[in-house]
Design a protein that fits this description.
CATH architecture: 3-Layer(bba) Sandwich
CATH topology: Glucose Oxidase, domain 1
Strand order of the largest sheet: 2-10-9-4-5-6-7-3
Oligomer: single chain
Distance between the termini: 11 Å
Structural class: alpha/beta
Shape: globular
Helix content: 25-40%
Number of domains: 1
Number of helices: 6
Radius of gyration: 16 Å
CATH class: Alpha Beta
Largest sheet: 8 strands, mixed
């Protein structure tokens, strides 16, 4: 297990650390407490598996290499920063064509920070995610405060997670 979601280079600033992110870090590392997070089900269902993932562009870049984690039965969490919607769509399609979404137990979308379209006609991240949900059969959730936003959770990547009744819970 490793912790993901706290970034030394951007979280420690002259203004200090965001209190919510700071609290999430210390709760995760010192007391192994993970507050339940209410999620929005886009394609519901109870999900259980090892939490794997992180930045979508990095996960997509691992396809076809020996470094892509074993995703069979995993709960895949994805987020990104500074990627226009068409690129997010391309990366999700790459993962789909590689069979990733046929193997995972479910997908949880975190935050997509500064992922604005270059032109209005290109659509938004929400449009990309809606299209994605229509094309996969696994449960899909959104609303996880995780990624590159100011206030976010610190997640235990590699730990078993369960999503039931739209709440994310970790098995310690």
């Amino acid at each position: 297990m490793t912790f993901s979601g706290w970034l030394l280079c951007s979280d420690v600033t002259a203004e200090g650390v965001d209190p919510e992110t700071d609290q999430a870090l210390w709760a995760a590392v010192c007391s192994h407490e993970f507050e339940g997070v209410g999620l929005t089900p886009l394609r519901g269902g109870e999900v259980k598996g090892q939490l794997i993932g992180g930045c979508l562009s990095l996960v997509a870049s691992l396809v076809g290499t020996r470094f892509l984690p074993v995703l069979d039965g995993a709960v895949l969490v994805l987020e990104d920063v500074n990627e226009p919607p068409y690129r997010v769509d391309r990366m999700l399609n790459q993962l789909a064509m590689a069979g990733v979404f046929d193997r995972v137990a479910g997908v949880v979308f975190g935050e997509f920070v500064d992922c604005e379209p270059e032109r209005e006609s290109e659509g938004r991240i929400e449009d990309v995610i809606d299209d994605f949900v229509a094309r996969v059969s696994c449960p899909v959730f959104c609303g996880l405060p995780y990624g590159h936003g100011k206030a976010r959770r610190v997640l235990p990547i590699g730990l078993d997670v369960r999503i039931a009744r739209d709440v994310l819970e970790f098995d310690l």
